[in-house]
Amino acid sequence: MIKMKKCEVLDMLNELYLDFCIVNGKVCSVKEVNTDLINSPSIYEVIRVIDGVPLYVEEHLMRMRKSAQLLGFKIKKSDDEILYEIKKLIAANNFPNLNIKLVFSDLDKSNHMFLAYFIKSYYPEKEVYENGIHTILFNIVRENPNAKVVNIEFKEKIKKELEDRNAFEALLVNEDGYITEGSRSNIFFVIDDKVYTAPEGDVLQGITREKVLKISKELGIEIIEKNIHIDELKNLDGAFMTGTSVNVLPIKTIDEIKLNSVNNKIIKEIGLSYIKDMENYIESKKNLF
């Protein structure tokens, strides 16, 4: 059972951004939200909104239900109800292009608490994609990697390490020296003409990750689900991270190891194809939101 400390609740409620949020179906001023709303056990999901459309929302809701199931609970609110409340949230805040966060808490009670709100969101500038990012190795194992649960202690450890070492992302290394995922992303490695990523049982099954797997298959690019050991990093031809806010983002360095990911043909092809898939999705959903 996951226990949430009071500081974790405060941290989440401090995330509330813009003027309005949704609390159990009602549009509320963020100023009205208090710390009694969110209690353990809790799960969450972050969805990017572009032009009024919550990107890949169906997959996000499916993953949220899976997170609840992994903890032994079931979300009682239907997808249609959640979608309706997301629409109300977007409209109440005048259709911003930002990420929204969905939180279900009190999962062990008959009446769940559901909170939806916008959060401050960072999207890398064009130059970041052109130059790539600096990443670091960090020895830590995420508990229950398949479930998206609140873990403020983990978040704070990573944040400090990234700030101290001036890095964009941390690649998590397990006790055997294998890289599983990023602290807030999924990680892919390119060796020769093949793309490697951790098996789905070892990582949070990111929505962007699933799209990249699908796109790679359509492009005829071979994906191998296998953990890469830190001793194999010297053999890389490139690497990239994926996530809700970053799409497909090339990695320039892993600690002191330099990579030419931004010029890697496979990474460029996957990145462009993902953007096209995202644009097609938004266009197909505009009349529904």
TrEMBL record:
One of its GO terms (molecular function) is transaminase activity. It comes from the Bacteria. GO terms for cellular component: cytosol. The keyword Transferase applies. Its cofactor is pyridoxal 5'-phosphate. SUPFAM superfamilies: D-aminoacid aminotransferase-like PLP-dependent enzymes. Keywords: Aminotransferase, Pyridoxal phosphate, Transferase. Belongs to the class-IV pyridoxal-phosphate-dependent aminotransferase family. This is Branched-chain amino acid aminotransferase.
